[in-house]
Design brief:
115 residues; Archaeosine Trna-guanine Transglycosylase, Chain: A, domain 4; 5-stranded mixed beta sheet; 2 helices
Amino acid sequence: ALGCGAHLNALRRTQVGALTTAGMVTLETLQASPAPLAMLAPVDALLSSFPAVRLSEALASRFLNGQRLALGKEDIVVPEQQGRVRVYHGASLLGTARLQEFAILAPERLIAASH
């Protein structure tokens, strides 16, 4: 602390997680694009720092219904460390969950799929 007043004229974000300025586009460029969705990063690009858990179809259905899952006896790869994970069925992001003690997967945020 300098002990004097100050103010900020501008603030420029240069990175969010793995996303950097190299992949950024302006809102004007996005709006003018004939294919704006092709310019957007996938949702899970923001979650790439979290370990991934891939569920079977049966477990994915239970997960999407908000059920906690005991993964200890399931035939899937479970991260060793507890904490937040991203959850998939195949290539589809289902949401995020908290991996708890005894390999319990507790849903946190679910992603609605558009069909």
